[in-house]
Amino acid sequence: MEQVNNTNNTNKNIIDNNNIQKTRSAKAFKFNPFDKEFHVNPYPTYYRLRSEDPVHRYFVGGDWVLGRYADVKAVLRSGRVRTHDQPELIQQKNLYLQGKGKNLNVLAYTSNKLLFYMNPPDHSRLRSLVVKAFSPTVVERMRPRIQEIVNDLLGPIHNKGTMDIIADLAGPLPVTVISKMLGIPNEAQDQLHQWSNVFSRILDSLVSLEEYEVINKVIEDFQEYLRNLVAEREKDPQQDLISDLIAAREQGERLSQEELLATCILLFMTGEETTVNTIGNGMLALLSHPEQMETLKREPTMIQNAVEEILRYDSPVQMTNRIAIDNIEIGNQTIKTGEKIILCLGSANRDPAQFPDPDQFNINRCQDNHLAFGDGIHSCLGSALARAQAQIAINTLVQQFPDLKLVPDKLEWRKNIALRGLKTLPVTFTCR
Ligand code: HEM
Fold first, then answer.
1. pLDDT reported for residue 172
2. What is the per-residue pLDDT for 25?
3. Which residues, at least 6 apart from 26, have a Cβ–Cβ distance to it below 8 Å?
4. 162 C-alpha to center of ligand 1: Å?
5. Residue 284, in any domain of the structure
6. How far is the CA of 116 from the centre of ligand 1 (A)?
7. Is residue 4 domain-resident?
């Protein structure tokens, strides 16, 4: 298996697809998402998970790990699971710290109000209030604005001959777009971006107590900023999502102030790194498969297919979790009430039982039934917005910079297990 930073072969640097199956070894399969090789390229591990032990028990803590498409989809859609217990884990840490004269009070309270950790009926109530703002019709109307933002970001780069696709385009785009939707003033965007990056660490499983204390402080600051903005919008409503949420609250739709603040923070966080990773992983896949890049250059209308294939091939969200609230039979195993389940979306999207020739990146594949946005009641609220941003950003790059070339020895993946994305994606091109 090749590593990402193999400088000798620029064109196959995500994965040597032909070798995925040959990595099977005689040793019993052990799922270890903290393994360095898994971090660079998780797909050989997923291959072994699906083919050797598809209903696997994680050696740390005994959580279940599922990697087959049908199993992952069935659990996501099942009424026999609830969301991960991250808010409860944070509360346990909070109680421990309180014993030492410290606390995580604000973080513990806020994490309880985050949509993706909520369960029905609270989840259904809160989701129904936000869902309208992200409907495909609303997003369609935003396309010209998204294109403008992309053009503004790329404009000054044309005569430079080099860019970092992450820092110059993929990073700033989603922050700008979600800020516009929420009605965050331009001058506050950088600060909120930084806070959101710190806060997104709660999605990871390896967070120290000291780091939790930092996150707690950041959430205090984030909330205070938003509380002031909400007060301004109460006096002077604008055409933005914060004003819409205030209106919903005032029309008695049972939205508390804390839920309103937590929802704004959540939208900032969930819409950001995932979209950055889609653009980054997608451009890396295209640059590593020149024939696919040529097809898209020739036929820009294929962008919708291309983005679906990018989401399937190198999914920005690789894993999510659930907890069984009833016994669940899968394969020959019984997952018992209270047991945790790790759902490998990245593996489900490479399952040959669902996607023929799954390790091939092929933008002609007309299948949008991947699980990159999850499924069931928690499926991605921002999928239409994410798709629009990725389609516009990638197509503009491909059309405006027709000879992009990867600088391969600079590639490094972000330290995150659930989210897969590059820290930087440096490219060169001919100046216009
Ligand atoms: C390509 C980019 C994106 C990907 C791959 C992605 C992926 C996902 C996935 C897999 C889930 C389900 C998690 C689970 O079931 O545990 C999810 C949920 C969610 N996503 Fe996205 N997302 C993206 C962009 C966005 C954007 C742009 C927004 C909004 C600004 C957003 C907002 C949300 C929210 C609010 C949830 C929680 C929904 C709920 O619990 O009901 N996402 N996303």
1. 94
2. 55
3. none
4. 32
5. yes
6. 8
7. no
CA distance linking residue 241 with residue 260, whole number of Å: 10
> Based on the structure, what is the number of domains in the chain?
1
Pocket of ligand 1 (CB under 6 A): 115-116, 127, 178, 266-267, 270-271, 274-275, 278, 316-317, 320, 345, 372-374, 378-382, 385-386
Mutate to test the pocket of ligand 1, among 381, 394, 419 (most ligand atoms within 8 A of CB): 381
* CA distance linking residue 103 with residue 98, whole number of Å: 5
- Among the residue ranges 47-56, 169-178, 206-215, the one predicted with the least confidence is 206-215
Residue linked to tokens 């008695």: 252
**pLDDT digits over 378-428, tens only?**
999 999 999 999 999 999 999 999 999 999 777 889 888 889 999 999 999
Query: Residue 186: which CATH number?
Result: 1.10.630.10
154/118 Cα distance (integer angstroms)? 39
Residue type at 35? D
Q: Domain span at residue 393?
A: 10-428
Distance in angstroms (rounded) separating the CA atoms of residues 200 and 231:
26
Q: Are 92 and 203 a contacting pair, CB within 8 Å?
A: no
**Quick one: which atom of ligand 1 is closest to the CA of 123?**
41
For residue 2, tell me if it sits in a domain.
Answer: no
The reply to whether 234 falls in a domain is: yes
Sheet architecture: strand order including 64-66: 55-57, 64-66, 340-344, 319-324, 81-83
Report d(CA 130, CA 141) in Å as an integer: 17
SS3 83: strand
Q: How do strand 81-83 and strand 405-406 relate by DSSP bridges?
A: unpaired
Strand positions, DSSP E, 16-137:
55-57, 64-66, 81-83
